[in-house]
């Protein structure tokens, strides 16, 4: 079998990370099991295009997301490309198989006010080693834009207090230097002293758990998610969103795209632009408001709220207004939003109903949701509207 050789090739020649190699191996092993059930043969280097198509059909009928299926397609294409390279096959069965088109929902960064509120809430962080460490982790994510795996891999020796920077090891073991401000350097010095007093110098990792062990992916995610839940109701509260917020806020304050690219450790500008959607949308908004020839053409979105069988409180009206106003950053041609809130079947739990119509050029966009609270219905509606808006824009682009 050539799968082990392929994984070694990824490790030693392509310099892929252990986690990426593990994912490739899992994808190939999964296809191997499918191929064995289909052909009674284990060696997937003998598979044909019909086997791959049948496999992808089975995935599409299962609960796998479009992103997961595309990753598995990529793994198979890379594997067969390797076999072609070493001369073990003359034609790839994956040739001509295309990835599934999917619609990326823009990542919504945290606002500067939300993050300022986080770091100013001293009561959130316990007055002990763990509290000091947790705050420093959040500060590093937001002030450097480093990835979760990069933070976990940090060593004490990566710090350079004299040069005021930190060395980060990114994807494919690529290293980059990120500058640090004086306040963050002061926090790092204090943390290292606390860490050494509590755990000594045996483990080189910068961040250690309560038991003195290196951090791991899930623990870092849960830590960040827990703290951000205190200051934001956004659906996604992860280290990656802090990275996104770092890039967006840097650009909002005048940083050059190339500089942000280097700080993030990207190999191309296109990768950096994925993180800067919010900043670009803000620039568009500023342009539309400021340029004299654009002011006349700019659509002003109005929100009309109607209620049936109940009287809406001010708090609910403000919630609806705040949530729906955010749709403008996805599509600046929304003319008006018609919102109908009603209560039906009062004895039932899910007796709240919301109908929302977006008036936009072309066909209007309509969603209907029900739930136990109007806030829940609005959240579900906004999530669906985002996806429908993205699809509408994709169709316009494809024309």
Describe this structure in words.
This protein is of the alpha+beta class. The chain has 3 domains: 3-85, DNA polymerase, domain 1 (Orthogonal Bundle), CATH 1.10.150; 112-278, hpI Integrase, Chain A, CATH 1.10.443; 299-398, Ribosome hibernation promotion factor-like (Double Stranded RNA Binding Domain, 2-Layer Sandwich), CATH 3.30.160. Helices cover 52% and strands 11% of the residues. The protein has helices spanning 3-12, 18-39, 49-61, 66-85, 112-120, 129-144, 148-152, 182-199, 217-228, 239-252, 257-264, 269-275, 277-290, 292-295, 314-325, 374-398; strands at 159-160, 165-169, 175-179, 302-308, 336-343, 352-359, 365-371. A 4-stranded mixed β-sheet has the order 4-5-6-7, covered by helices on one side. Helix 6 packs antiparallel against helix 8. The chain starts with a helix and ends with a helix. 23% of the residues are buried.
Task: Give me the Rg, rounded.
Answer: 25 Å
Number of strands: 7
What is the structural class?
Answer: alpha+beta
The CATH fourth-level homologous superfamily of the largest domain: Intergrase catalytic core
SSE order and pairing:
Layout: H1 3-12, H2 18-39, H3 49-61, H4 66-85, H5 112-120, H6 129-144, H7 148-152, E1 159-160, E2 165-169, E3 175-179, H8 182-199, H9 217-228, H10 239-252, H11 257-264, H12 269-275, H13 277-290, H14 292-295, E4 302-308, H15 314-325, E5 336-343, E6 352-359, E7 365-371, H16 374-398
Parallel strand pairs: 4-5
Antiparallel strand pairs: 1-2, 2-3, 5-6, 6-7
Helix pairs in contact: 1-2, 2-4, 6-8, 6-10, 10-13, 11-12, 15-16
